[in-house]
Specification:
The longest helix has 51 residues. The protein starts with 17 loop residues before the first helix and ends with a helix. It is mostly helical. It is built from 8 helices and no strands.
């Protein structure tokens, strides 16, 4: 017999995204508690991360375009990274601005109306969550491998001795003298990794929220089926209460979906525009390079294009899952 919800331990919807939240906290974007930045060491660390590491990385990458605007190949080799970095910084702004709202949204998932009624419903919900978890692990591994290869590219190609940086970026000083070269190299490495961590965990956090909506659609459908299959004539008052609960659940789910859509619609729209340009630019760069050669970054550019395509795929996949469940429901 299925376990009663009263006898069950409450299902923690946020357990699947703990690594997401921990990763965002690592780069200063997810304060503990209710999401408020307070006068403490974490806020100082967040300020350094947001303004100097992430902000500085985007600033110098963008300024570089003004110095190479008359060189098509150089512009093409920089613009796909610059556009991605600018969009990632916009994502960072959305997290910082809405972190309290996101905390409240995640807390709302623990309300009684969203709780699975028994072990069978937990398994129904986890079918969708397990798919998201697999995609998250694959996408995270893919991006972190690219970040590691790109940040160590001068070592792989032997250009470290020539004072070459992972990205050919303009700096307002001569970075080719020690120790400025080593410090600038570390700055770029931190920038690459922080950008990668932010991008992976922001995108997959949105997809996780879409997955939660999908799982809740399944639970609503299952609850309605249980009402329809119940003994209406024998227990009319219980059936009436179950119908009322289903309606409340459905209304809460609509409110949840509307909140997620409102929070991220602009960023997702920007993601599709940026990814379209980035994929077109990287494919153009591949026509000018040997995709199997590390000497001219051809192999990394091919991997980068694959990562961007995967990024768009995750949005399309989980967004489509919501669309399918809504139609079924």
């Amino acid at each position: 017999m299925a376990t009663s919800v009263l006898a069950m331990q409450r299902y923690d919807w946020s357990s699947a995204i703990k690594l997401n939240l921990l990763s965002l906290r690592f780069i200063g974007l997810w304060p503990a508690g209710d999401g408020t930045y307070k006068l403490n060491l974490y806020s100082l660390y967040a300020f350094i991360s947001i303004i100097f590491i992430l902000g500085g990385h985007v600033l110098f990458q963008t300024v570089t375009l003004f110095f190479v605007y008359d060189k098509l190949e150089t512009v093409a080799s920089n613009i796909f990274i610059t556009m991605t970095d600018i969009l990632i910084y916009v994502k960072m702004y959305h997290i910082v601005r809405n972190v309290k709202t996101l905390n409240k949204l995640l807390d709302s998932l623990n309300e009684d109306v969203f709780q699975p009624k028994d072990e069978r419903q937990i398994k129904i919900a986890e079918q969708s969550i397990n798919i998201w978890s697999y995609v998250y692990k694959w996408f995270r591994f893919f991006v972190y491998v690219i970040a590691t290869m790109w940040s160590t590219l001068p070592f792989l190609t032997g250009n470290f001795k020539k004072k070459v940086l992972p990205h050919d970026v303009w700096f307002p000083y001569d970075y080719k003298v020690s120790p400025m070269y080593e410090l600038t190299y570390l700055f770029e490495m931190f920038g690459i990794y922080f950008m990668s961590i932010l991008n992976v965990n922001f995108d997959t956090l949105i997809c996780a929220l879409l997955t939660y909506i999908t799982a809740q659609c399944d639970l609503v459908c299952d609850n309605v089926k249980n009402v329809v299959g119940g003994h209406v004539s024998k227990q009319p008052h219980q059936v009436h209460q179950k119908i009322v609960n289903c309606i409340k659940h459905h209304k809460k789910l609509l409110s949840l979906a509307e909140t997620v859509n409102h929070l991220f619609e602009v960023v997702i729209f920007g993601q599709f525009i940026t990814s379209t340009v980035v994929i077109a630019t990287t494919l153009f760069m591949l026509t000018l390079t040997d995709p199997l050669s590390l000497d001219n970054e051809g192999f990394l550019i091919a991997l980068y294009a694959g990562a961007v395509a995967t990024e768009i795929f995750t949005y399309c996949w989980f967004g489509n899952e919501v669309e399918i469940k809504v139609r079924i429901e």
